[in-house]
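User: Hi! Is it possible to get a structure for several chains at once, not just one? Here's what I have:
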Amino acid sequence: MPFSTGATGATGATGATGATGATGATGATGAAGPGGGAFSPGLSFGITTARDGIIGAWQGPNRNLHDNSAGDPNNMAQWPGWARSYVVQTDLLATLIFEEVPDENADFRIRHLEPRNQISGSVTFDSSELFSFKRPSLTEFRRQLDYVNTYSELRLDRSAEILSQTGYPEHFHGVILGLHPDRTRYTLELMAMAQLFATGVAQRVKHALACKRPDMFSSQIQPMIPMPGHGTLPSGHATEAFTVARVMSLLVDDRADTDVGNGVQDQLMHQAERIAINRTIAGVHFPADSIAGAMLGLGLGEYFVARANGLGVGASRGKNRNAGQAYTKTIRNRVKPARFDGTNISSLDFRMRDLFRSGERQSLDNESSVPVVELLEAVEVSERSMSRPLRWLWERAKEEWPARTASDMW
Amino acid sequence: MTKYRWEHFPEIQLGAYTNPYTVWFEVVGRRYKNSQPGDRKCLPDLWIVDYAPKLETNRSWRSLDACDQLGALRIESECPIDTDIDTLKTTATSGKPVDTHTWHRAPLRAESVPGAYKSLAPCPKPGAPCDRNCKVKTIVAIIDDATNFAHHRFRSGDGGSRVDYAWVMDGTAPRDRNSATVPFGREWSNKEIADILDDASNESDVLRQLELEDFAQNETIALSKRISHGTHIMDLAAGFEPGEDIGDSHRIISVQLPRRVILEASGAVLHLFLKAATRYVEARSREIAKQADTKSLPLIINFSYGLGAGSHRGSHPIEKCLSEMTANRDTADPINPVQVVLPAGNRFRADGHARRVADSPGAEALDLDWMIPADDISPNFLEIWLPADAGEPCVEIVSPGQPFGGAARIDLDGGALALASGDTEAPDFVAWAGADTETDVMGNGIGRIRVLVAVAPTRVSRSDAPPAPPGIWQVKVSATLASKQDISAWIQRDDRLFGYRRLGRQSYFVDKKIVPEQLLIQELEEFSNVHVTNGKICGYGSLNGIGTNGNAFIVAGYRWRDQASSHYSSAGSGTVRSPSLSAVSDRSRVLAGVLAAGSRSGTNAVLNGTSVAAPQVARALALRFVDDQPSQAKELTSVNLDTEQTSAPTPVERKANELRGRRELLTPQDRVKSQMAHSFAEDRLVRDRIG
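Assistant: Yes, the chains can be modeled jointly so their relative placement is included. Here is the combined structure:
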């Protein structure tokens, strides 16, 4: 619990996810010392009587005060984590359009708004598609149901993981990176923000697609954890875990002076895959949900980093076997949109490697070579759409990874 | 209340059939054909048929082409012989037994059987084994299930694989039947494995390409679990770090039996699959020997599997299969010597064995209270064995709740019994009891008489077949015996197998007269009462039903810390052979099991049971052969292993040690030893805390 300090407070504040991360708020703010958290009635009464005892006669302002400059991202340092989180979330969502205009190609689209011209105070925006989703039919879900049944055999083997991953599984990422609330508080905060962002978007897509959960298809699924009330596709856990994996691997790599092996990224990706599959084992998701979630999560991760203006070609791989090859194959200010076509999902099982390989997101075809996930030509997410508060946090988090070298990263 | 009544079939006489389990299944059991919880669909009805059973007695089959040996075992979609009750009755007049010895059910997915297998392409050639330059010194064959043969512990120094051949019997057969190299399932050659290892981006990808982790299969996917039986066993027998020189001289053949065969713990559908496995190991060993161009290549076969029942005289069909691999092997044979290693079994305290030995000639009876638990969704089997020349053999059975005097009785040379449920005119049988005699492959009666009592599941949830009544079944077998002859009973195992969901509940014998104090005393005395011959329940004689042949290494388990036998480790008796020796199967009283490879590379996991003791002996044998390539015929059969002798102060303890295989303890290998040292520290901590 104390692990999830900082911005996880925000998740508590929204309460939207029902995540255990909520308690994180007490970590960073409450326990941080005077001024944070709530006063107990006794403390409140004590402070009041003490004030009466010591202040003497009223004298007006008696402290020197330097004003903040408006809009300065460095002001972020003054705010509590939960408030920072609201600031960043609002910024992130401000350039997204959620479009419920079903046509032949999609049931739901997410577009990015790219600011173009600023003429005498008015800004025009170009919109470009970032994600589109076509929901699987009931027939497709029925075909997927066999997997939910066969995976259920692993329930007892995986129960420790499944039960501790019902909320945000931040520790499962943290142990890979060696996160600690004292040493890497901003990284933790960044991770929590990415997670929260992913949750919000995933929920919006879930609502739009309105797909029924596996237990609605068969009375024999009997999930081993409470079935969430919201829609099944895309999987929120897959979206969040892959967003975190992508953001974290871009963070630890986004420094020109280091060469980070792909060991960390690989572990993060495998962990995300396992978290997603554990939900199928538990009986609450189809593999199709994880495919859609992973597609969305990986893309949102890159979008999140682009909004912090953190994308770009990563460090070279140094001592790695493929020395010289850029490890992070992202291009500054460019993100590839992705399309999910659930009507072609067929009996595809979910594998991380189908969607992320060699440091890059991948398209995925079904057995008959019909696209299920299709990556499109990259669209611009430029500095003009950068969130300066998010940028501030991104830089603080980066500073927490100064002395990492390849030898201890892979 | 359901009424039960026994029906008697006097026509079905001793010798009417040769495999009572097949008859049970065809007459009664089929209606109860269980599927695992969550099974998606029923499997197709398939049978495995041995078209060359006589090869067993004709040793020249070794010279046959490998494919012909294997190809004689085929999967059929039609039951070879009609075995309904009417057919069985007619054998009384024809005098020809229903030969069920050469076929039994084959619980395979349709995808595991190549289409139109009968016309399999003539002798498809297996892939080449290892590199010609590789210094092969010994072959270790592991017959098991759930084996990650791509695990890093089986990789060679050059990044390839030390597994030369792997046969996944319930794998997906190639669609092009002309490319099938095995009669069913999927074979992987060394090159295919190495190519996948080279190509795959991670271990999940490897397992996916090897079709070992495919959730589209309607099967237990054991390699997704943390611990898998086959991987653990194979590591103990032949696992090395890829850099270790010695590893590259150990070549590996892996056979994974069909998961549903392993799951059927009665062993009723195991025999021909095991025969296929041994023929395969033999054939592929020859390929390796050819490539290695050596005159004498030792082969160690480990089969960590056990059955509860059987003749316990070394005559189980599986034992015959295995012993033909070892016995009378020509020293000019390039595959030479061959050693088979089996576990002693884990049924010492399972209350599954009783025997009565005649002190003097005369009438004797074995009186059993057989407890069949309620809520058991799998059938229960009890085998009782009598001497071939027992006089007036007779079985009496009282099923639970049957009124006093309601015993059904058959004289063994005159009939079978079936317990019918309800009052319907059409018989709804829930139990079957009949006798057969051991036969040779020609169908000639050669040995002892077996009485099989088979009882349907006590819980039936998915069909209209009636459940059998749970509770105590009284079974009394009587006969006139000569002095020292015995009547012995064994219950088939029915417990949960490692890595699988629980299907059955284990039945057991109850001794109504025993009081708790006596149980405690037995426990404190380490069950040293080795002379139970009066029909009481006894752990001595509980040896693995397929591990009683003299030719095999039978390995018991001991606790490393105090060198005592592991509490479950089965034992011999006056009439059942003793285990050859013991290897570590538990670290201490507190710390069960030994560490070896988990399902995935880089992981270790703990597993216990005599299953993990056997492969340590297999490893010791293999290492022995690597160190000291035997050249003289005499040396081929006896191998000196690194063992410690135990001493016992009293004759009773000495006898107990002998029967439990504890006279010789295999010294743990370095790797196991270092784990022990580590465990010991933990153990001491625990012990300090508790006491």
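The interface with chain B takes residues 146-147, 149-154, 157, 220, 266, 270, 273, 347, 349, 351, 353, 357 of chain A (CB under 8 Å). The CA atoms of residues 55 and 61 of chain A lie 13 Å apart.

User: Great, thank you!
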